[in-house]
Amino acid sequence: MKLTYYGQSTVELVADGKTLLFDPFITPNELAKHIDVNSLKPDYILVSHGHGDHVADLVSIAKRSGAKVICIAEIAGWLGKQGITNVHGMNIGGGFNFDFGRVKMVNAVHSSALPDGSNGGNPAGFVISSEGKNIYFAGDTALTYDMKLLEDENLDWALLPIGDNYTMGADDAIKAAAFINCKNIVGVHYDSFPVIKIDKTEVEHKFIQAGLNLKLPAIGESIAL
């Protein structure tokens, strides 16, 4: 699998020949201004919740690419009103088999409302099973003991928010890694706004001290999972 980071929580995952794009927020992100959003051609777009810093480019990319959007039922309904009909609605605890592998929607502790004030349903995370690997995309979440339910998922990698203020910070992300029994972590949801700016050296040191493998790819950088 190949993961490409586009800033905030926007990541692209190539799995079994399909391109999955998570939480597209590129155009308004000053840190990602060198990324050509029109070059992205996902087969699927996965949306964790409705906040603007996760859906800013959702409708435009979905319309241009024809990608199938995987999201909670309330966001699926909202997308229909935006003219997006290639949508697969889900809910917490449910799973579904797609042509690239299986997606399970799991709990996240946060809030969710769409940019126009519409109900965004419950926030969520995803466990992606493809190519014999299991990847956890936590979405925006606080540390929650529900994460212990994922320790038997045999997770190979976890994408965890580390920016604090709106989500877990580094210390709680380290606890989350123990809860989910996963040592390979990609940090997301940091640096895009002043209140979530991190000291990368300090954060990396904390993860090393905890015996964890933390990756903080540059915006536009790809890594192998």
UniProtKB/TrEMBL annotation:
<protein>
    <recommendedName>
        <fullName>UPF0173 metal-dependent hydrolase EWM62_14540</fullName>
    </recommendedName>
</protein>
<dbReference type="GO" id="GO:0016787">
    <property type="term" value="F:hydrolase activity"/>
</dbReference>
<keyword id="KW-0378">Hydrolase</keyword>
<feature type="domain" description="Metallo-beta-lactamase">
    <location>
        <begin position="7"/>
        <end position="189"/>
    </location>
</feature>
<dbReference type="InterPro" id="IPR036866">
    <property type="entry name" value="RibonucZ/Hydroxyglut_hydro"/>
</dbReference>
<comment type="similarity">
    <text>Belongs to the UPF0173 family.</text>
</comment>
<dbReference type="InterPro" id="IPR050114">
    <property type="entry name" value="UPF0173_UPF0282_UlaG_hydrolase"/>
</dbReference>
<dbReference type="InterPro" id="IPR022877">
    <property type="entry name" value="UPF0173"/>
</dbReference>
<dbReference type="InterPro" id="IPR001279">
    <property type="entry name" value="Metallo-B-lactamas"/>
</dbReference>
<dbReference type="Pfam" id="PF12706">
    <property type="entry name" value="Lactamase_B_2"/>
</dbReference>
